[in-house]
Write a structure and sequence with these properties.
Blueprint (H helix, E strand, L loop, with lengths): L20 H7 L7 E5 L2 E2 L3 E2 L5 H13 L3 E5 L6 H4 L8 E6 L6 E2 L4 E10 L20 E4 L3 H8 L6 E4 L10 H11 L4 E5 H8 L5 E5 L10 E8 L4 H13 L1 H11 L14
Parallel strand pairs: 1-4, 1-5, 8-9, 8-10
Antiparallel strand pairs: 2-3, 5-12, 6-12, 7-10, 7-11, 7-12
Helix pairs in contact: 2-8
């Protein structure tokens, strides 16, 4: 989630037909003895220092495929994350990176997920499946500030009903996603619009809350995203190796994600995958 809205602009100056010495040095940073992962230490349910996140489990799986032990460089998500981790050469791959971010080179995507509406199973909004539903007008709605659903809610005339949570926080001391879920649970919020991989795993066994994927929004911005791994720009061979592992092991990857409770959709965000 912290990476989904971060699309940075940049230019590669002084590009030459042949690789530069600097590029070669960067390419040589990749470890051949460890699967070195750059991650947020408190980004549950994705990554945690305690190795309990589903991206931790996927990292373990890729480590097994590569026959390499997994190690981590920990740094909070947000400004400076890529500079202080991947570009610094202390780790070699960022798990769970939204496709299209120019700060990294993306592998092929290994899953696609979607924003959705978290409501009480027995509440008045339990059957709502789109943000233009008139039933939402009578309830406060939690949403992470600056994310695509906020634009949809504002366009639907629900700005006055939006209750914002911060996107970039130190999750070691703050838990905005947990606060949104608690608001729905205790009735302070009628619903919360949340990124599926953040909400789904947290409520997959919850008897009171449910997640409804937003598959029917007709205007932009889009609410589904293809998720990749991020590697350094120069490391084409490393990207191809990871792409091959993704292609050959997609069924197992999907199984790990489903067991975690991550809602998976097709590549066009039109339908949930079984």
């Amino acid at each position: 989630m912290a990476r989904i809205a971060r699309l940075a602009a940049g230019l590669l100056a002084g590009a030459l037909a042949l690789p530069s010495a600097g590029a070669a040095q960067v390419a040589d940073l990749r470890s051949t003895t460890q699967f070195r992962v750059c991650a947020d230490p408190a980004n549950a349910p994705m990554t945690t220092r305690e190795d309990t996140g589903f991206e931790n489990r996927l990292a373990d799986y890729f480590g097994e495929l590569l026959d390499l032990p997994v190690s981590y460089t920990w740094f909070p998500s947000g400004m400076g994350f890529i500079t202080r981790t991947l570009r610094a050469g202390t780790c070699d791959v960022v798990m769970g990176y939204a496709q299209g971010d120019e700060l990294v080179q993306n592998t092929n995507h290994y899953y696609t997920s979607v924003y959705g509406l978290v409501t009480r199973r027995d509440g008045p909004l339990a059957d709502v499946d789109r943000l233009t539903d008139a039933a939402l007008r009578d309830h406060d709605i939690g949403v992470v500030a600056g994310t695509p659903p906020a634009s949809h809610l504002a366009r639907a005339g629900l700005a006055a009903r939006m209750r914002g949570a911060d996107l970039f926080v130190d999750r070691r001391v703050e838990d905005p996603m947990g606060d949104l879920l608690e608001g729905v649970r205790d009735g302070t919020l009628g619903a919360a619009v949340m990124w599926g991989p953040l909400a789904g795993p947290r409520i997959k066994d919850d008897p009171d809350l449910q997640f409804t994927a937003l598959l029917h929004e007709e205007s932009g911005p889009r609410l589904f995203y293809r998720i990749t791994m991020g590697v350094r720009m120069e490391e084409q061979e490393w990207k191809r190796q990871l792409n091959s592992l993704i292609r050959r092991n997609q069924d197992e990857i999907n199984q790990i994600l489903r067991e975690a409770g991550v809602p998976l959709v097709d590549d066009y965000g039109r339908a949930l995958l079984d």
